[in-house]
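Researcher: For the record, we're logging two predictions in this thread. I'll number them. Prediction 1 follows.
Model: Prediction 1, sequence and structure:
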Amino acid sequence: MMKNPKWQIYRGRNRQYYFRLLARNGRKILSGEGYRSKAGCWGGIRAAKKNAVVDKRYLRKAASGGRSYFVLVSLNGKTVASAGGMRPRDCVKRGYGP
């Protein structure tokens, strides 16, 4: 895991709580699913931290336009968070891709 990650919780237009992980430069790295409560959202962050260290929990996929993304899943296969929209060469530089 990177040094000093910044986890941010925000509320969407649908009134659900979401989290995102920001890099030091403020760029979004990871986005969480929607939660009905802030406590549930904190649970999502804990799940992301726990599962992020296990390579098998990343489902690497290809999106349209030659871009790649990944989905982070928990042990039971439920989606915890996702990230993407990167060009293939950026994925290779960061160590992931389809």
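Researcher: Logged. Prediction 2.
Model: Prediction 2, sequence and structure:
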Amino acid sequence: MVVDNRNEIREFLASRRARITPEFRTRWAAHNVRYHHTGRKHLHHPVVGDLQLMYEVMDLSADPGLSLVVYSAEPGSASQDGLNLLATWAATLDQLDQAETAQAPDEA
């Protein structure tokens, strides 16, 4: 049996909206959001730790609405070392997958 909680959800959202400050309402209504084509991101990877990466967004002219995001690390930085480790790790896993596929018996 599926329980329909839409009324409870509406009540919850209405009560939350009632507590929003006038400043938040003004900022939300302005919706002043900018699209950044370049910048710096701080990411945390569970294996290599903190990464400080620069990024650039490139629009694909052949496919309107699609973009390519390229991340890079400062040369010689700990972030570059982390990306190199991840690349090596990914390549090793890929080689292992290929070896397992080559050794698997045909299932035809």
